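Lecture notes, continued. The same structure-token format from the folding unit now serves as the input rather than the output. Read the line below as a description of shape only.
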């Protein structure tokens, strides 16, 4: 005669768990300070442009000459910051795909590239560098960190 088997509920059976998938750590970018400097210059140029628009509108509404002087000085700051950013950022490239990090080209962007709605890929990279210290290459999708 066969022995009666008892029913064991599934909750009490221990299923061997698989090991969690390995997550690759972000790569270190060798020119971290240049990336931070370039991102800061682009942010400064954006802030100067917003200030220029603000003081130009105030100049048109109030006809005060000091608003005009401030608007022109912010326009000069915008031009200088953009020139310095161009000179710095054209040589910053991804170590894997050799695409420029903060100088956007018309190439196809990677599916994993960061993009904030309403902003460009470069603006999302600048925000990521300044806020988190990390960024993702917009051409190959490789994550980078700026700290060792």
């Amino acid at each position: 005669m066969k022995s009666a088997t008892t029913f064991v509920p599934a909750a009490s059976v221990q299923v061997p768990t698989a090991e969690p998938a390995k997550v690759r750590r972000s790569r270190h970018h060798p020119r971290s300070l240049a990336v931070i400097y370039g991102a800061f210059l682009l942010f400064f140029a954006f802030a100067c442009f917003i200030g220029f628009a603000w003081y130009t509108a105030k100049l048109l509404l109030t006809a005060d000459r000091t608003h005009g002087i401030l608007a022109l000085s912010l326009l000069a700051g915008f031009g200088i910051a953009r020139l310095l950013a161009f000179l710095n950022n054209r040589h910053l490239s991804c170590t894997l795909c050799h695409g420029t990090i903060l100088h956007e080209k018309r190439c196809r962007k990677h599916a994993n590239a960061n993009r904030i709605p309403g902003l460009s890929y470069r603006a999302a990279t600048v925000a990521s560098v300044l806020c988190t210290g990390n960024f993702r290459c917009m051409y190959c999708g490789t994550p980078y960190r700026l700290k060792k």
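Point for the exam: The helical segments are 32-62, 65-89, 121-132.
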